[in-house]
């Protein structure tokens, strides 16, 4: 045999601490057919700075779909099927880099996914650019060893083969036809090159993670040994590996035989289904539409005739709605007629390669009035690759190489729902059959009707009222995840273990919005001292900060007067411009220069915020530049007057020092104390401290300006008018 090795690599990704599925970094690979060995090369590294500490990286593997993980130990939604993922841990301690190999023999062909993440996030809100987090990088490479000329085992034809040595097992494959109800593998004429009885081990099927259903068979001596499989995967190549357990230098000759039992379905013909589809999509001519609809309506009764076949097939149409959004529609109506003689089969096509990133929802609703036999139960199984053709009261929905998901409805419990998170890429089948209690003689004639609703959505229930469904992308592959808020957690934001109460949500909204009213004293001081431009900026900041935080709330207490992004931008712009104009006002510049700097600085701040809204230098840059201008102006004033500026000790003790202290405390709270849990009161403290510091730091009004008085303004205006009249009279 000729083996070919292939190598696949993807670029490294920077890992994140885990708080929701979007923090896990996904790698998507495709394993080719006839692969006999798969080796993962996992490389993890970290930075060399002092902030980098020992870290444990968790890596999850899954075949067919992204792995379903739960690092936080939260609850999944009701009726959701969860099977633990296969995972390993990679520790980065003293070494800067760690290399790990993971081997998988006879892997299943198709899509394989790897997800990697760091431990749970601490919840601290870090200011971008203020601190440099340690970079943890992860890269996954894939090596495959593929057999180019794997022998094909023809069904029903005995095939002799030789196992050269225990180190070189024999690989063959057989194609499983559609509608195969069972498979029987038989091995005979096993003899070694030394004419002795041999011992071999046969492995049927491929390895899939997190669960592998590979079947094993050990044969000793020359007697025949066989293995029967129920419901093998339809229209797929099945790998068979035979390895010798004898001496190292002895070859083994065996003869293999594979046979299938086929289950022919009874259903409507393809032509009549096509007519029914056309009539359901759009109506044609009145006469033709009536005759076609009548023929299609009679088809389910006449085509299959009496229920003599081993299964009944119902035609299903796949309707693509959007990205990772599919609806399945039954051509003969949502109600499916069932009997106890044979199961009814529905095909749910999820093999496009882009359907595994959502949630498959199957809902069954029993029509109680249609059940002709009391105490009867409808059993159902949802399975991938092959259907479950033998349903009974004790069945566990298992097929030859997979484990399905059971459902049941009865007159006492008429509805059942199943949620499959990240269904693997494959053909999915829904098998239904009516089961009768023991001792019921009328069971063969019993019937029932079940309404079936099946659809694929990006997020189940759109993540609920306390979550946001986000569409994630890794290269060309799309998948969805829920980002929860207000303390809710879980895969679909249904875990209320740490959820905030409505009262807590209202309190958080009131604190974050009403704390902005502390700008009113600063506005009043600015107006009293004739700083009207500064007062306008503070009013702008107070308004947009109030309504931005009213719109930014995660719970039910939310009010958005305009687009969220617009409110956020205006809030950030107002905050930075308020600091800019306050420091320039303290510099006591000439009016024309001050207003030019006001406008120029505001334009530059608006540009920098558009480039990076959360960068620390968008706030620190204008602050430092304004402080340089202020210190330069104060030195100039002091040198000109030949004494310290500001000259009054009362100004320093009662205004400047308290204002500077409040500003430093506010910066410390903003940069070091905010977390996701205490955000609503620490950020409210930031609002109060900044607004109070502005009121203290604003300089006094110019000495030549009188206090604000409307009467003086009116008198002055009348006096100007009187002077003009006197001047005109004098000229005349």
List keywords for this structure.
six-stranded mixed sheet; 11 helices; single chain; alpha+beta; Jelly Rolls; seven-stranded mixed sheet; 732 residues
What does this structure look like?
Pfam families: DUF3522. Residues 455-494 form the EGF-like domain. InterPro entries: EGF, NGX6/PGAP6/MYMK. It is found in: Cell membrane. The chain is α+β, with helices and mostly antiparallel strands. It folds into 4 domains: 3-147, Jelly Rolls, CATH 2.60.120; 159-262, Jelly Rolls; 312-457, GOLD domain (Jelly Rolls, Sandwich); 502-697, Up-down Bundle (Rhopdopsin 7-helix transmembrane proteins), CATH 1.20.1070. The protein has 11 helices and 33 strands. Strands 7, 22, 23, 24, 26, 29 and 31 form a 7-stranded mixed beta sheet that branches. It has a 6-stranded mixed beta sheet with strand order 20-21-25-30-27-28, with no helix packed on it. Strand 32 and strand 33 (477-484) form a beta hairpin. 34% of the residues are buried.
